[in-house]
TrEMBL record:
The keyword GTP-binding does not apply. This is uroporphyrinogen-III C-methyltransferase. The lineage of its organism: Bacteria, Bacillati, Cyanobacteriota, Cyanophyceae, Oscillatoriophycideae. It comes from Euhalothece natronophila Z-M001. Belongs to the precorrin methyltransferase family. SUPFAM superfamilies: Tetrapyrrole methylase (SSF53790).
């Protein structure tokens, strides 16, 4: 169904992982000219400050267990706003197309006849390790990397993900949304043949002023995580590239609020 009376266009913009300095120029220009901005919980205050002061700002954020707007409602809102506003921005953490449901939202908008465009952002799985001094690939250490969600958790863990194939086929593994389920995931990776000594790092609030990381091995990390009271949002990086952290973490960039 195409509604010819529609005025606006929706821009699905990736806000990046936190540090406002990592936001794209294209995204910034659109925020400055936006009529409506619908944003997620993980978008940093420094990026929200770039929004046109006259724009309507709507928090559609959802964090684990706290849904302030359901997915369908958010899409409906975008469709409504596009009927009488020219520039509607949907601002999402990291990259919209990496575990961000950007594809689903875009599909729904296309189906509703709304013009839509995506502006990528730097995904947390790339930025958080970088700010922690962990290169995801490195000559002689890793020539492959897999991004995977660990979210098949929430009490009823059913491994739909082929952890065995990932363990065997990828030298670096980056897990999003995996903190709550890390013990199960590590169990799967050990079953698949990774050794208990395999290095792992957890980076939380990557590229934000409160960034924190812990490192260990598949054998020790759960204990360390509990000791440090470590919680989401965090990515886990598994593989020998994590050994580079001990030297390269000294070069961590400074982060603006
Ligand atoms: N689209 C986002 C990912 C959304 S899923 C992106 O491309 O980055 C949410 C998960 O992303 C969190 O559970 C966490 O695993 C990861 N994440 C998001 N921001 C993060 C940050 N600043 N530091 C570490 N992990 C982060």
């Amino acid at each position: 169904m195409t509604d010819q009376t529609l005025l606006g266009k929706v821009y699905l913009i990736g806000a990046g992982p936190g540090d406002p300095g990592l936001f794209t120029l294209k995204g910034k220009t659109l925020l400055e000219h936006a009529d409506v901005v619908i944003y997620d919980a993980l978008v940093s205050p420094g990026i929200l400050a770039m929004i046109n002061p006259q724009a309507e700002k709507i928090n559609a954020g959802k964090r684990r267990g706290r849904h302030s707007k359901l997915q369908g409602e958010t899409t409906q809102l975008m469709i409504e706003k596009a009927q009488d506003h020219a520039v509607v921005v949907r601002l999402k953490g990291g990259d919209p197309f990496v575990f961000g449901r950007g594809g689903e939202e875009m599909g729904d908008l296309v189906e509703a006849g709304v013009a839509v465009e995506v502006i990528p952002g730097i995904t947390a799985g790339v930025a958080a390790p970088a700010y922690a001094g962990i290169p995801l690939t490195h000559r002689n250490i890793s020539s492959s990397v897999t991004f995977v969600t660990g979210h098949e958790a929430a009490g009823k863990y059913r491994p739909k993900i082929n952890w065995s194939a990932i363990a065997q086929g990828s030298e670096t593994i980056v897990i999003y949304m995996g903190i709550h389920n890390l013990e199960n995931i590590i169990g799967e990776l050990l079953k698949a043949g990774l050794t208990p000594q395999t290095p792992i790092a957890l980076v939380r609030w990557g590229t934000c002023p409160e960034q924190e990381e812990i490192t260990g091995s598949l054998e020790t990390i759960i204990e360390k995580m509990k000791e440090a009271d470590f919680s989401a949002p965090a990515v886990a990086i598994i593989g020998h590239v994590v050994d580079l952290h001990s030297v390269l973490h000294q070069c961590r960039p400074k982060v603006a609020q």
